[in-house]
Amino acid sequence: MAIEVKIPAVGESITSGVVSAWQKKSGEFVNEGETLFTLETDKVSTEIVAEKAGVLETKVPEGQEVKIGEVVAVIDDSKQRLEEKKAEKPPEKKKEPVEKKREPEAVEKTVEEREKKPPPEEEKPLSPAVRHIVEEEKLEPEKIPGTGRSGRLTKADVLAAVEERGDADLSAVASAKADGRFIRKKMSPLRRKIAQQLVMAQHTAAILTTFNECDMSAVQELRGKAQEEFTKKNGVKLGLMSFFIKASVEALKAVPAVNGRIEDDDFIQNNFYDIGVAVGTERGLVVPVVRDADKKSFANLERDIADYAARAREGKLKVEDLQGGTFTITNGGVYGSLFATPILNPPQSGILGMHKIMPRPVAVDAKVEVRPMMYLALSYDHRAIDGKEAVTFLIKVKECIEDPKKLPLDF
Asked: In the chain, how many H helices and how many E strands?
């Protein structure tokens, strides 16, 4: 019987997606639970698996946009029994050929020829994540040096290959533009959604940004002292983001208006603290949400952040991971940004921008000292938040970072 493979409903408000990469080819036998293809939507990338075992017949090519509920393939499970019978049937024993006696000289020559001729290199299997990138980026895995066990390719190996190829492509594009030519490429659903969200945020909110700077000396010193024990105890490193999440929660408690949103003619005040943490991926920026951040320890925050970052880069985030945040933190400093104005993540009313830590001369007790400084930026919806509230919020964050003892240090 032929079983239809349909595009499943992957989240509220998502009506379509793109079949970005088939993991199995038409005509191949697939097992139940095996990944068939990757569906890229305007929010997340999802791996669609086979509900039954059988022979796959694809109906749409890679790169085609499909609607929710659309049939993209069929699996003929009647051929499953045939495959099982073949597997159950014991292989026939082959008669071993009678080896003829060779003259000593011939034997020596054969051994010598074997030594000269290297054995064919075994094809090394690819992990699902690596195979997805190789197929999506149309890479040649045999030409990429592997750094994993037994020379196998890791995700870092193929991403490095993509980046190297990207540098070459950029130079080629530059020369093409110089000749008056251009390259047209369709935007991915995620990139289109990001563009729509950014424009919508600018058109529907009165965005204003206030700035400050904070001395990172105390946090750096504390991390240096606690890092070894923290990592040994919890299995994750003590990063900067957990400090800023904790500081933001304290600031949101002090200035509740920043933790709300406007809905029609109403202002909704949130009494919970679900903090979105922006994560950059190859496909664009996504903002998974750390739930109940006020109730979590530093270790739990760092585990959540590490898990989200890994799943975001592998395209395994779920729609619900991205929904319901009350406030967002974005760190442009990891890319070297010194100063920027973040754009709101609708329908939220506030977003905190972190930046690169730079040694700068500052006045400390009437003396000039070089300290590790970071610029902070709070963009907010001026319709819901007054300037005084925004400045008070940012100063509270600054105070908590410069004096971490004001935070619940539950290491």
From this structure: 9, 19
> Which of the given ranges, 101-110, 157-166, 386-395, has the highest pLDDT on average?
386-395
Q: Which residue among the candidates 169, 386, 403, 410 is catalytic per the annotation? A: 386
Query: What DSSP line would sit under 164-225, residue for residue?
Result: HHHHHHHHHHHHHHHTT-----PPPHHHHHHHHHHHHHHHHS-EEEEEEEEE-HHHHHHHHH
CB atoms near residue 301 (< 10 Å) = 23
Q: Rounded to an integer, what distance in angstroms lies between the CA atom of residue 362 and that of residue 354? A: 19
- Segment 259-268 shows an average pLDDT of 94
CB 102 within 8 A of CB 110: yes
Is 101 exposed, middle or buried (CB count within 10 Å of its CB: 0-12, 13-18, 19+)?
Answer: exposed
pLDDT at 188 over 70: yes
Contact between 313 and 281 under an 8 Å Cβ cutoff? The reply is yes
Question: Which residues share a beta bridge with 210?
Answer: 378
Catalytic residue among 76, 274, 294, 382: 382
Assess whether 132 carries a catalytic annotation: no
User: Which two structure tokens, joined as six digits, stand for 64?
Assistant: 């085609």
Q: What is the value of pTM for the model shown?
A: 0.65
> What is the torsional sign of CA 224, 225, 226, 228?
positive
386 catalytic residue (yes or no): yes
pLDDT digits (tens, 9 = 90+) for 372-403: 999 999 999 999 999 999 999 999 999 999 99
Distance CA 263, CA 241 (A): 29
